[in-house]
Amino acid sequence: SDLFVPLGDRPILLHAVDAVLASRAVDRVVVAVPEGWEARVRSLLDPRCDVVVGGASRRDSTLLALEAVGDDAAVVVCHDAARPLAPPSLVDAVVEALDGVDGVVPGFPVAHTLKRVEGDLVVATEPREGLVAVQTPQAFRAAALRDAHARTAVAVTDDAMALELAGYRIRVIPGDPAAFKVTTADDLERARSAIGG
């Protein structure tokens, strides 16, 4: 599984979990994993972590993790193992920015020209003013996150999208270059270089 791709001397998953645990804003972590990986992941994690079997979609995995969190948490932070170098300060920042809104995402203004295509033909150039590329960790009021996912039947690409579709307010704060997504071999090499191994 991608969760166990080595990054330095530890699996990529542990880097992401450790960053969240090092945050001042988090006291418990729930990790959603593919079926069959629960025991292996649980054996590697800090005692403040719980492991649940994820679902067939991001939405399903979030709902299963929320069930494990229980109703006591007022704020929930959602993070992806694919962003293993996101610093604890970014976790703190998204939680601290929740005042007056239902969700917070870190993001950067889009720098590239964006083309809409059909097949292999360009049909439009999209204006990039007002567009941001978002990252995780993302922070949410737990009640809003639960409600948004319960009311959203479409596939979502991040948890903030569920809140957006449900009409909740989401704030964008500056992202962190260290929170880049590891999806290709080049990304993995960049991450290994960043940690010196």
Question: Could you walk me through the main structural features you see in this protein, from its secondary elements to its overall organization?
Answer:
The protein is α+β, with helices and mostly antiparallel strands. Helix content is 34%, strand content 24%. It is built from 7 helices and 11 strands. The strands form 4 sheets. Strands 5, 6, 9, 10 and 11 form a 5-stranded mixed β-sheet that branches. A two-stranded antiparallel sheet has the order 1-2. It has a two-stranded parallel sheet with strand order 3-4. Helix 3 crosses helix 5 and helix 5 packs across helix 6. The mean pLDDT is 94.
Helix count from the secondary structure assignment: 7
Evaluate the radius of gyration.
Answer: 17 Å
H/E series:
EEHEHEHEHEEEEEHHEH
Relative helix content: 25-40%
Structural class: alpha+beta
CA(first)-CA(last) distance: 20 Å
Oligomer class = single chain
Global shape: globular
Averaging pLDDT over every residue, what do you get? 94
Q: Which helices and strands occur, and which strands form pairs?
A:
Blueprint: E1 6-7, E2 10-11, H1 12-21, E3 29-33, H2 38-44, E4 49-53, H3 58-69, E5 75-78, H4 88-96, E6 103-109, E7 114-118, E8 121-126, E9 132-134, E10 138-141, H5 142-151, H6 159-165, E11 170-174, H7 185-195
Parallel strand pairs: 3-4, 6-11
Antiparallel strand pairs: 1-2, 5-10, 6-9, 6-10, 7-8
Helix pairs in contact: 3-5, 5-6
